[in-house]
Description:
- The chain is an alpha/beta fold.
- It folds into two domains: 3-41 and 307-394, Fumarate Reductase Iron-sulfur Protein, Chain B, domain 2 (Orthogonal Bundle), CATH 1.10.1060; 62-299, NagB/RpiA/CoA transferase-like (Rossmann fold, 3-Layer(aba) Sandwich).
- The chain is built from 19 helices and twelve strands.
- Strand 5 and strand 6 form a beta hairpin.
- The two termini are 22 Å apart.
- The mean pLDDT is 94.
- The structure holds iron/sulfur cluster.
- Iron/sulfur cluster binds at residues 257, 316-322, 344, 375-378, 380.
Amino acid sequence: MSVFTDYKKEIMEAAHNERIRLALSRAIASYRANTNSALKKFPHTVKMAEEVRGIKADAIGRMEELAGQAAEAIESNKGKAYIARTAGEALEIIDKLVGTDKLIVKGKSMTGEEIGLREHLEEEGNEVYETDLGEFIIQKLDSRPMHILSPAIHVPKEDVAQLFSRITGEELPADDIEKLVATARKLLREKYFQADIGLSGANVVAADTGTLFLIENEGNIRLATGAPPVHIALIGMEKLVPTLGDANKVAEVTWRYANYVVPSYVSLVSGPSKTGDIEKVTTYGAHGPREFHVIFMDDGRTELARHPVLQQALYCLRCGGCLYECPVYAVTAGHFGDKYFAGVGAVWAAMINHNVEKAASIAYTCLTCGRCKVRCPMAIDVPQMMVELRRLIAEGDSSV
Ligand code: SF4
């Protein structure tokens, strides 16, 4: 079957799946209420989003320069930095660092998802645990993420209870969400301290100091990047901005539009752990990781940045807001997408993954209604991008 036929079957089945609709209707109502109240409480966020758009426009135009600057800063902080031109190069670097037979705890990373990092490391003979609760559910269901922030958004509590009951052999009630969360905590707790390596992405990176910003609520990223002796971060180059001050602004806008007044945790990581507490001799590997490796991956991003319309996809902060406004996503979840979802997902499929059939399928499913653009803090013009993408695909343009 062709990619298109598979996609059509998948999306039609999803549209008739009552459980997806149930889970999404609950999530959408809660997202809208939370975001509206967060923006009401901090109205400056709307103005700050405009400023962030300017920061991103500048940064996207010089990603390579910023990656070089960030790499230099990380090295001077005694970390190791790498620039990967392609996904293959990124996997090669990670393979050399990881080897085989390792226990790995992993935080949620869309860039990792994009290149199939977990599956790759498992094929290489490693044991990998997703530690984000949603990702953990997805991993155990052998499914795939359906939202960039809430990967298990399509899985109602009844299914989670069934899954965790099967894993633990204990009958867990669907109505006791606290117990379900506690079960995941218990299952993962010891893995953080047994792990050889912690893997993460980053929400934004300051090039001047080489600082990674990791935004989260669960505390799993702090543990996964803090407890093991080695921390490896895989980061798409579009996450770079010039300064620490810029990165702070990007982070605040991201979490506010991701429906949080403030997240429980924001970790800033710039190098390996160190101490100077004994005779002021700087020694690396105190309580946190002894090794810190950062891979900045291009894989089509600098090429995409040169396209006057489609480059907007690189401005995306991955706040997920557009998905909650999209009428197609509301009934199909992440089936309306590929590695990323909806309009931005179509551009990613075309320009980064070069999966033209998938990109066309998503681009032609889009209704170009523009509701996403109204919610988007970066005012990404998805309808404009879809029209342009359809044109490029129809004309057989060599860039897609
Ligand atoms: S396109 Fe805009 S609204 Fe959607 S995830 Fe990206 S930044 Fe957020």
